[in-house]
Every structure is written in C-alpha cells, then in structure tokens.
Design goal:
The protein is mainly beta. The chain is built from one helix and 16 strands. The radius of gyration is 17 Å and the shape is globular.
Length: 182
C-alpha cells in the first residue's frame, strides 16, 4: 500500500488476477487499469505527494512496462530502452507527478531512468568501474535529485544523480564497512 496522505494506492490479487486501485475520500475506489495488449495485471510502486499520479508496472504487448497513471490520462506506458529485455518498472514520482523514476533494460543491461512528458525516458547511466547496472529508487519532491544504486569499482554503491552533475557515487557503503562500531 502507498499513501500520499489524501490518496491510497493498493494492489489487489484474486486467484491469478492482479490489478491496482486508488482510494480517496472524494473518488472512493478507482481501478487504474492495465496497458493494452498484455495480460491482466498492474502493480503500483509509488504515488506522488499530492496524490495525483501513480507509478508502477503493468503487462503490455511488449512485456512488463513502467507506467504513469493520472485521472486525466489514465494508465500510460513509459516504454523501455532499445536493445535490452523489455522489463521497465517505475518506482517513484516527484511530488506533483511530473517526473517518474525507475529501471529499464538497455543493450548495456539494467539502467536507471528519469521520465518526463517533454523528454520521455532518459537513461541515467551507471557508475564507472563495475559491471553495468543501475537502478533509481527515490526522487526529491521537486524532481531534480535522484538516488539509487549502481555497481562501481567499490562494488554495489549508492549514488546521487542531478542533471548538472550526473551520477555521483556516495561511497557510503564502503565507509560503513570500514567505520568503527558506535
């Protein structure tokens, strides 16, 4: 279950059927639907702070696909990167829902993304030195800062991404392993 304070998003499963719903004091219960062409099923991963937007994944004709849902547009597939398995997933949104973050699969492998209506799905890359893999896990309310994990020369490492600096490793995991016990 995910909540914004005014809206709750849940996943309901009954005997092989899974679908996502949102609840609000005004609109009551509302099914979010599924993407066209795929099996029945959608999964919520996050809800915007203002309750207007839900992100997640659903089956589409191409495979598992990240989606963004609003009351005005309904459920809209966000696509995936060229050359990889089609298995994108949205994890979180900015406060107003205008920016969605998640993970897709490119020819390089698993890759974090940032999505906006103006730019579509944009790859965030990965940290240098390790196997190619990144995923975005959360986003600031204004949509300008993203955090996640990627493989680097230090191993599986947390990062912070901004448009100005790109993906910057935080070295927190390495520091934590070598810090004296408190």
């Amino acid at each position: 279950m995910f909540t914004s304070g005014r809206v709750i998003a849940v996943i309901c499963s009954t005997l092989f059927l899974t679908s996502s719903f949102s609840f609000s004091a005004v609109a009551r219960i509302r099914g979010l639907g599924e993407l066209p062409g795929g099996d029945f099923g959608s999964y919520v991963s996050g809800i915007s702070g203002d309750g207007s937007t839900v992100g997640g994944r659903s089956y589409s004709a191409s495979g598992f696909e990240a989606f963004r849902w609003t009351a005005g547009s309904g459920i809209v597939g966000l696509g995936d990167f060229e050359g990889g398995d089609f298995r994108s997933r949205a994890f979180a949104t900015s406060f107003d829902g205008s920016v969605v973050i998640g993970r897709g699969y490119s020819a390089n492998g698993q890759e974090a993304f940032r999505w906006t209506e103006a730019e579509g799905m944009v790859a965030l890359g990965d940290l240098p030195g390790g196997s190619y893999s990144s995923g975005a896990s959360d986003i600031s309310p204004d949509g300008l800062t993203i955090i996640g994990r990627s493989f680097s020369a230090n191993g599986n490492e947390s990062y912070r991404w901004t448009e100005a600096q790109g993906m910057v490793g935080l070295f927190l995991d390495k520091l934590a392993r070598h810090s004296p016990e408190m």
